């Protein structure tokens, strides 16, 4: 059975492997102490005169009296001291002669001397170099450990215990230690265990404050570990130096297939080092470099690697600074590369010219491109023409993202014409493209004959009630859309009527997103009426941010109670305006469905 070590699993071990840097060792051996209780009068004089010496003097006087026939009783009891001593009541004192008192006194002093020899004194922990007077405890709760710039070093005891914990990592296939901020020092302990772990396949060390210096702990480890398939170092400030260090290690690595270096501060120099590594490495299939500082020179270096590397299948460059020139270099590489299947260029500002060059390279690409992410790239209707050409010709593309561009109605019409002939794309994202009812009407007509498209994202487009009407008239009986997202589309209560009517007849839509459309109570009531009708397809409905009040909440609650065969399993009503009465009504409806049908509905407020 495959074993895994995740953050949830580490939580169960947190009490066992939480080490305090201030902890002092305890000792099982405890000394035996002899406690002598003098006579009552002697104790009274001792208290008046004070001190241990006074007690001894009182004992001498009592001994003299004993010689004269005035016997005194001296009580002797042995007690094992372990931790903090407590005074036991003196129950039955023994009468002893004066000579015995001297022997007991000598024995008492001897025992004290012997106890000092037997008890091992605690070792003083080595000084801790910390910025604050309270050094942190080692824990495996996210964010509770060392900061990225912490100069703290572990003492010998903590180092040993942490090293013992790292031994556990040798036996897991999935290791998730993301978000613990253990820094370079923690990586020192954990990396070595990976070198001896021949079963770990997926290791996640993201967001741990690891720097370029810390990556040197992998020296020799990545070269000899052949079982590791995925390494995630995202969110660590390794920068260009870290990318260079890692690249040198991965040149000869024959195991890692997925390398994630998102948000690591890598720039052009680091991208260049990774590009040179890819020319020699034949195992990496997925490289993620999202949200870094890679500009055109870095894009050019990676594109050069694509010309020689025909093993890599997916490259993620979202949120960088490639621009049109970076896109041109990638387009040129596509002409000769035969392995690339996924290209992520979201948010690089490539513009119309950049997308033209990408599509030009893709036109002669001999590989099977299945995913293209070109969202948020300042692409207008002109760029949409090039994309439409690609859509009409592709035989492999499955997923296309054009989110947050500005293709408008004209671009939407071009995309719609291309989809009429396409039989491979199952998911398309056209959200945030300034599409109105005209553009949606063109897309709706395509859905009559397109039986392949399953997911349509149109959020953040001002399509209004008219656009929804055109869409719903088609989807009522035709199309195979399963996921329809219409959030922030200015639909209003009037548009909700068209959607409600569509849901009464549609048998394919399972996920419907209608967030922030100003539906109000009127729109909620319309949708509630449609939910009373048997609909075995719709399982997830999102009505957040719609200004729904108690009246609308009551209507939805009644609909859930009325339809025993309702398939909805998730209903989001967050950020609306109903009070606790509306919440109670929905909660009761949820409980009613569970009691009657033994089905759970997740309702979020």
From TrEMBL:
SUPFAM superfamilies: RNI-like. It holds the Pfam family LRR_6. This is RNI-like superfamily protein. It comes from Rhynchospora pubera. The lineage of its organism: Eukaryota, Viridiplantae, Streptophyta, Embryophyta, Tracheophyta.
């Amino acid at each position: 059975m495959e074993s895994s070590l995740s953050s949830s699993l580490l939580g169960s071990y947190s009490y066992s492997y939480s080490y305090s840097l201030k902890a002092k060792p305890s000792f099982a051996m405890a000394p035996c102490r002899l406690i002598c209780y003098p006579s009552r009068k002697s104790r009274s004089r001792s208290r008046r005169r004070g001190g241990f010496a006074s007690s001894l003097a009182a004992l001498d006087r009592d001994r003299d009296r004993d010689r004269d026939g005035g016997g005194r009783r001296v009580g002797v009891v042995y007690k094992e001291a372990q931790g903090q001593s407590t005074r036991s009541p003196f129950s039955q004192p023994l009468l002893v002669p004066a000579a015995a008192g001297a022997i007991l006194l000598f024995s008492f002093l001897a025992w004290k001397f012997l106890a000092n020899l037997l008890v091992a004194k605690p070792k003083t922990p080595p000084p801790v170099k910390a910025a604050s007077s309270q050094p942190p405890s080692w824990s495996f709760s996210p964010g509770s450990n060392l900061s990225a710039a912490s100069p703290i070093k572990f003492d010998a005891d903590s180092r040993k215990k942490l090293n013992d914990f790292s031994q556990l990592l040798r036996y897991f296939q999935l290791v998730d230690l993301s978000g613990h901020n253990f820094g370079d020092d923690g990586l020192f302990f954990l990396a070595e265990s990976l070198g001896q772990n021949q079963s770990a396949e997926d290791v996640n060390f993201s967001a741990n404050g690891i720097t370029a210096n810390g990556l040197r702990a992998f020296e020799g480890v990545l070269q000899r570990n052949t079982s590791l398939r995925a390494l995630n170092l995202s969110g660590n400030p390794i920068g260009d130096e870290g990318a260079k260090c890692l690249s040198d290690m991965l040149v000869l690595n024959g195991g890692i297939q997925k390398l994630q270096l998102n948000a690591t501060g890598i720039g052009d120099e680091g991208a260049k080092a990774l590009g040179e590594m890819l020319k020699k490495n034949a195992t990496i299939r997925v490289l993620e470099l999202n949200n870094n500082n890679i500009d055109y020179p870095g894009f050019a270096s990676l594109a050069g690697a694509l010309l020689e590397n025909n093993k890599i299948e997916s490259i993620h460059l979202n949120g960088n600074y490639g621009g049109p020139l970076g896109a041109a270099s990638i387009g040129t590489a596509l002409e000769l590369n035969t392995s690339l299947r996924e290209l992520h260029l979201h948010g690089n500002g490539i513009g119309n010219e950049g997308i033209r060059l990408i599509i030009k390279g893709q036109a002669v690409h001999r590989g099977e491109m299945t995913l293209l992410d070109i969202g948020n790239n300042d692409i207008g209707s002109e760029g949409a023409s090039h994309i439409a050409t690609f859509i009409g010709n592709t035989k492999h593309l499955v997923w296309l993202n054009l989110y947050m561009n500005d293709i408008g109605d004209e671009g939407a019409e071009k995309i719609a014409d291309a989809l009429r002939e396409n039989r491979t794309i199952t998911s398309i994202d056209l959200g945030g493209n300034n599409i109105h009812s005209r553009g949606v009407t063109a897309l709706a007509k395509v859905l009559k004959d397109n039986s392949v498209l399953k997911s349509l994202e149109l959020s953040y487009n001002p399509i209004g009630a008219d656009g929804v009407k055109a869409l719903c008239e088609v989807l009522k009986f035709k199309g195979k859309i399963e996921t329809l997202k219409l959030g922030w589309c200015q639909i209003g209560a009037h548009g909700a009527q068209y959607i409600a009517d569509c849901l009464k007849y549609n048998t394919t839509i399972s996920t419907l997103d209608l967030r922030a459309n100003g539906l109000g109570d009127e729109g909620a009531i319309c949708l509630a009426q449609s939910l009373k009708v048997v609909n075995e397809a719709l399982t997830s409905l999102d009505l957040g941010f719609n200004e729904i009040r108690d009246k609308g909440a009551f209507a939805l609650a009644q609909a859930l109670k009325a339809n025993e065969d309702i398939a909805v399993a998730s209903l989001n009503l967050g950020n609306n305006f109903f009070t606790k009465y509306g919440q109670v009504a929905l909660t009761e409806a949820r409980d009613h469905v569970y009691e009657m049908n033994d089905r759970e509905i997740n309702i979020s407020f």
